[in-house]
Amino acid sequence: MLRARSHVAALGVGVAERARRCTLGAALLVGGATGLACGEAPPDLGTPLPEPTQALRPPDQRGPIPEASRIVDYELEARYDETEHRIDGRTRITWRNHGPAPVDRIPFHLYMNGFRAQDTAWMQQGRGSHRSYGQDPEAPWGYIDIASVERLGSLGSDGNAARTELRHAERSEPSLMDVWLDAPVAPGAEVQLELVFTTHLPKVFARTGYSGRFVLAGQWFPKPGVLMPDGSWSAHPFTVYSEFFADFGQYEVQLDLPADLVVGASGILVSREEDGDRQRLRYRAEMVHDFAWTAGTDLVEAWAEHDGIRIRALVPEARAADAPVHLQAQRATLDSMQARFGPYPWSTITIVDPPPGASGAGGMEYPTFYTTTQLRPIPSVLRRLGFDHRVGGEFTTVHEFGHQYFQGLLASNEFDQPWLDEGLNTFSNFLVYIDEYGPDDADGPWLLQVAGNPLTVYDGLRLDNGGIGPSQPIDLPADRFSPLVNAYDSVTYRKTAAIMMTLRRLAGAEPFDRAMRTYADRFRFRHPTGADLEATLAEELGDRIVLGRTADGRPIELSLADYFEQALRTTRAVDFRAHDIVNRPRLGDAGWHRDEHGELVGGDPPEPRSADLPDDEVEGVVVVHRRGEFVVPVEIEVQLSDGTRERVLWDGTGRYRVLTWPGRRVRAVSIDPEGRLVLETRRYDNTRWAEGEHPRATMPDAMGQLAEASSLAVLGGLGP
Amino acid sequence: MSRVLGGLFRVLRAPGLWLGLWLGVTAVAGLVGIHMRAVVAATLGPFTALDLDHVLFNTFDVVRDHPALVSELIVSVVGSATLGALVWTLLAPLLIARLAQPRSWSELGGRAFSRLPTVLVQSLWHLPLRLLLLLVVGLSTRTLPPLVTWSALGLAWLVAGVALDATRVAVVEHDAAPWHIRSAWRGLVRAVRRPGLLGPCVLLGIGQLALTATILWLALAGFGHASPWPARLLALLGVGLGLWRIAIIVQDAADDPPAAA
Ligand SMILES: [Zn+2]
Asked: What CATH number should be reported for the domain whose range is A573-716?
């Protein structure tokens, strides 16, 4: 508590100092462009809040927690040596066999070993870099070494547990280790193991490590795999795109750190003692599947309370002004996600903005604890001119908190089906934006503004997905995505969001949101699979969603199974094109016909040109082309010359659909006018005007005017 | 102030010059626009409709399939800028001679034509001086925040512009040494030493930059639906500000003539 106050005071000085430095810039008539840092009042960092006494919210607020989900408990003791960047640790693990058969071997994840050498599975793919951050040549390697594994038996007469040394061995891929039990654990029984380990942290480039005195410890201790219902183990090598998969349980963690470091961690702080130049902190986290912590100097604390949840942000002192933005984004995300996916069950959330030099730690989620990224605010003078974005650190905060649900709470297997985690989360992030900024309609909130012109969330998804091409299907294990193909991010995150958004727009927001709530309620504190999601949606929305009817009354349906099959397990693209509009003379009776006597009569000439005909003698024809392989129903809107608009639903089967309007002239056609098919990335060929008709605005005019204005600007504006 | 007003009267007494230059600028820009329209129309075929609620997406969507449209736009802008630099240099003696005093067509043409080579040579001499000035300013402000550095460089650029015009006025109207770098140097010294000259001219330069930014902003904000006339009228103002800047320098030189060769 004292520490918090001293940091707040230090911050006040820092901000005042910056304000003084800024007067020079202001004097140069450019002050407006320096944005947040200049001449503004110190940011509101809230008042330090007492630590909750329980790691979970009260039972009436946190929602149900199935007791059977508690599989593995940890007691961890760790001492951090910041000159060696080494953690000396000991963990006591209680693991329950909830499988169908006795277990005599437990595989463990040694994630840190992914960074041990160039030939680990992680490094073979990652080649020493993650996102845009590379290994530091001075401190490139991270690893974890297991000194011993013992099985603890029942207490002896001396009060100590009997100990049996167990055989353990790393696999050839060192991010995995096997421990052989001396005797099998029967179904329903539990085993207690004690492991002594040493973890060496790399200079941070891939989520975990140190930078100067800052440290972010993630994936730092040995973790057992997950025993699947069929008795097989899920334990995967750590690869560049695979994240983490573990069972729920209780964590009691004792950290021994230099006394002057500001510390944040998963769960609640139970106690803190200072002993000379060290501090000993005890943390508790309940019903979580991982535990991470951070420590550093020059971190400013900012506080908020929302719905009884204690929110604490740790931001670099130089970026203290960002803290209120992260806190606000956090509150908005809590509101949206609790309303949509059920209550957040834990009593705390800790946000960390890693300091300069430690950006490789940014943008990662751990239970009740996550790292965000730096805000990139647009200077206020430009904002007033309509230039702005919502895709910087604010979005990272929304995204990383979103992981508290997908997969902190709905703990899917991030290795086997990363889309359930990153994809559903990205989808929920856009829902947060819809809830926070609105509207929830065909346009949606903007992500980017250029001179007041918005790029909406749907536009953003289309653009992102349009860039990837038909590269890899969504429903693949993480290690099947190659960094060389470079499709993982777009496919797993944004294409998944686009298939969910498309389904929401087709099925209707209200029933779809209800179905997702059912999924979230049903699989809290469990390990849902893609099949679980598909089955829940089919159960709630129906296997076949009726989207409309043909002229003769037959239903036009969207088969969910078919939709998911195409969307998740193929690379088929949704792509339609307005192939043609023809206004031709209506079929008449000119020419020679036989009369009742068998004589040829008539012989009138055909109508020469439809342009000269009155509308009722014209037949308007529209030809729509399904260019993409993805078969999905689509709406077609036709504008007729009498000013009316008609909509026709096409089931999307077949390559072409020909629509005719006898006695009416067609002015224009627009495929998917409401943009429900968010999966469709190319839209400009969806609209077409008949020959001789002129749309309200055209791209040639717009680009021509832009070119003319640019020319005027450099020739006339800059002048002689 | 007398320089500033004197300069303004000189511009107002030459409305034909102002309007003529503007008509030229508008015609060139109009042609650039027509060319761009034709290229985009030919590229897109029947799919030309612009969705006014999603102009950014619509544009990215089109450009992703037809990236050459971006290079077309860049060529238009860079081409216009190059043309501008060339034409304004070639026309400089004419503008100066006209702003200096009313002259008959033949006298004006004769002076403009005869002084053109010296203006070109002095413009070339001016280049290394401008680079030197930018280098000095850039190096001496490099430790300051980037915004300050860039603002200082921008100011230096505008100051150099005033110096160039002062040199041109000296060789066109006051018989300064036509070929010697000394004239370019004296123009720079004159500009820097006369805050009463430099101040208004730099402010007018900033005004021109603001106009340029405004034209571009209007084009983006009204993408696909704005009238082209505000941009054209702002260009008229831009040409006027440029002429005013030169006229102030002409006035200053008339009041206190620079040394002749
Ligand atoms: Zn994520």
From this structure: 2.60.40
